[in-house]
Amino acid sequence: MAFTITIPGIIRLVVVRTPDEVLAVNDASMVERSLSGRGGLVNRSVAAKLAVFRTPDGDIWPAFRDRLDPLRVAHQAALEAALSDVRPLLRRIAPEIAELGGYVRDGAADRSLGVIVQQAVGRLFFANYTASEKSYYAARTLQTWLSPWPLRAFWIRRSGALQASLDRIMDLSRGDMACAHATALAMDNIVRSIKLMRRLARHGDNLAKIEPLDALAQTLRAPTRVVREARDERHVGPVRLRARSLVLLAVESARRQRPDPGFALFASAWNRCPAHGVVPALLADVWQAARADTGGSPEQRRDLQTDQIPVSKNPPTAAIR
User: Fold this and answer.
1) What average pLDDT does range 59-63 have in this prediction?
2) Which of helix, strand or coil describes residue 248?
3) Facing residues of 6 across strands?
4) pTM (two decimals)
């Protein structure tokens, strides 16, 4: 059930937590990605945090573009098409998948988990993308910048780490803002999923017994939260949205109530993740790679196609991003 926090001059916030309400609010035409900063001190602070992802020429990272933005529509369609040929993309990152499988199986790898995931994600865009501890630190810095801790955010900006991290990520992404978003922010959901795979693999003979698609279903995670703004006052079902309220969609909390990978990856919405096909296949392949030395019959390894991945193609309502 949604709840509202209103302190005049400080904050105007609506938190949405149930699946149906999250889907309905996300689909409401007056709920936008862009933040005006109106509504209170906290509203201004959150809007200022997102403003750093706008380039000097006025462009902005794709996940912060509004629904009717024609560039968002064009860029999302082009990227989704580029990421739709799943098997060749996964062959391109086969070394990273093998490394991640080793981590799931043994709990260790030659490089940190985050660096491997960042490189795998980057190579979906550029075949020679090379991640490092410095580039992963830059990603973690930007993730921390978006966290709800004002003192950390103050220090990140004051120290120069914020701009340095943005510059490093954009340089590695060759100016491609979709790649920058994927390798700095979205990749954290994959890191969380791989860590859960490792935890699952540690118990008994789970690694040998659990099939890749079942492991995927148990470990795929959604973004913890997504922030929007209500442009006008309106009721969306039982949820009252006041004008210029921040709207916090608790996506992962809602996903736990409706464990559908299509919900986690926003597979059928206007704001769906362009990688809604390749990410589940990647995670399933990681589990299969981990099974290689545990009786998982590698000689019978499936060639997992996107239509085998349990992503909802026609969920009853839209999903979120």
Assistant:
1) 89
2) strand
3) 12
4) 0.87
User: Given the structure tokens 């990749």, which residue do they identify?
Assistant: 187
| Other residues' Cβ atoms within 10 Å of the Cβ of residue 81 | 10
Rounded (to 5) percent helix, strand, coil in the chain: 55, 10, 35
pLDDT band at 309 (very low <50, low <70, confident <90, very high): very low
Residue 279 tokens read as 């990410």
Give the single-character DSSP code of 60. B
Long-range contacts of 271-276 (CB under 8 A, 24+ apart): 271/26, 271/33, 271/67, 271/320, 271/321, 272/76, 272/80, 272/319, 272/321, 273/186, 273/321, 274/76, 274/79, 274/80, 274/82, 274/83, 274/178, 275/83, 275/124, 275/182, 275/186, 276/311
Q: What is the pLDDT of residues 211-270, one digit of tens each?
A: 999 999 999 999 999 999 999 999 999 999 999 999 999 999 999 998 777 888 777 778
- Residue range 218-233, pLDDT digits in tens: 999 999 999 999 999 9
Q: Torsion angle of alpha carbons 12, 141, 274, 198, nearest 10°?
A: -110
How far, in whole angstroms, is CA 154 from its chain's centroid?
A: 24
Q: Let me know: does 246 contact 11? Beta carbons within 8 Å.
A: yes
3-308: CATH topology: Cytochrome p450 (1.10.630)
Burial class (CB within 10 angstroms; exposed 0-12, middle 13-18, buried 19+) of 66? middle
Q: Which one-letter amino acid corresponds to residue 291?
A: R
Tokens, residue 236: 């969306």
**How many CB atoms lie under 10 A from the CB of residue 234?**
15
Q: How many CB atoms lie within 10 A of CB 213?
A: 19
Alpha carbon 12 to chain centroid distance? 25
Could you report the per-residue pLDDT of 273-296, keeping only the tens digit for each? 999 999 999 999 999 999 986 554
Considering only residues 154 and 129, tell me which one the structure prediction assigns the higher pLDDT: 129
- Has residue 301 got a pLDDT over 60? no
d(CA 132, CA 112): 9
